[in-house]
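Task 17 of the worksheet. Students: predict the tertiary structure of the chain below and write it out as C-alpha cells. Keep your answer in the requested format; marks are given for formatting as well as content.
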Amino acid sequence: MKPAVSIVLPTFNRLQFLRLTIESVFAQTFADWELIIADDGSDEPTRQYLRTLASEPRVKLLWLEHSGIPAVVRNAGLAEARADHVAFLDSDDLWEPRKLQRQFEVLRARDSCHWIYTAFTQVDGSGRSLPEEIHRRWVPHEGSVFERMAIGRISIRTPSVLATRELIIRAGRFDETISSGEDYDLWMRMALESDLAVIDEPLVHVRRHDENHSRNWHLAYHGRDHTLAKLQPRVDPARRALLRSERVKNGLKLAAEYASLGERANVVRTLHVAFGYSWPYAHWWRDAFKILVRRYVPQRLLNMYRAHSRGA
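Model answer:
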C-alpha cells in the first residue's frame, strides 16, 4: 500500500547534521510516510551512514552523480514519490514530532488548499535558537497569496511545506535551470494554482551555520529575476505590472550589493542588463545613478557636497 506522504530529502555530505535530521523524521507522531533520500554524490562517510538505513522498509535511497543543483536532486526524489502528498526536508534541518500530524489535520479541513506551511525557528549548528529570533517578526499568511509572495511578504522555508503531489506536478516541479531560489520559484507557481494554508506554530527548526552560507550569494538574485520574468506571460495585466516592478527592485538590490563589495564591473554589468526592462521606471534612473555615484565618486567629494547642501 502506498504511504500517505512521501518525504523528499536531498543531501550532500553534512553528516554531522544529517543523523539528527533523519531522527526527527522517525520521531513523527504521524507514521504513514516514506522517506526518499536523494544523495547528490556525497563522500564515503556519508554514504556509509546512509547504507545503514537501507534495511528500513520506509526508506528509499537514491544514489546520484553530483550535480550541485538542488532542483535536480529534489526532482529526482519527487520522481520516486508514491504518496498523494509530498513533504520536503533539507539535510541539516529538524522537524518537531507533531509536524506532519498537525499539517494533515489542518489540510483535511481546508478543501480549497492543496498545500500548507508552518512557522519556523532558526537555530545554530548546535541546535540552539539564534539570539535574533527574539526580535524576528513572523506573520502567518494564507488563502490567495500570489501578490504577497511576489513582494516578499511571506516567509516560507522549504522544510515547512506539505503539498499534494498533483499540485506540484501541475505547477511544473522544480526549475532545474536555476541554481538558487528553486523553492521560491515553485511556491510562486503553486500559489497561482491553489490557496495556501498555514499553521502558526514553529514546527520546523532551520539551521544557520557556516556551511550553508553560500559564496555564490548572487545566484539568489538571478534566480528571483528568472522567476519574475518567466511568470509574466502567465498572469493578468495587474499581476504582470507587479512582477515587472519587483524585477526592477531586485536588479537594483543586486547592483547595490555589488557596489557595497566594491565590484565595479559587476555593478555596471547588472545595471546594463537591467536597463532593458527597467528604463520606463523613473525611480530606477534615480536609484541607479545613486549607486553609481556612491561607487565611483570619492567619499571625500560626497561629504563636501553634503556639507555644501546643508549649508545652502
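Marker's comment: The two ends are 79 Å apart (CA to CA). The longest strand covers residues 195-207.
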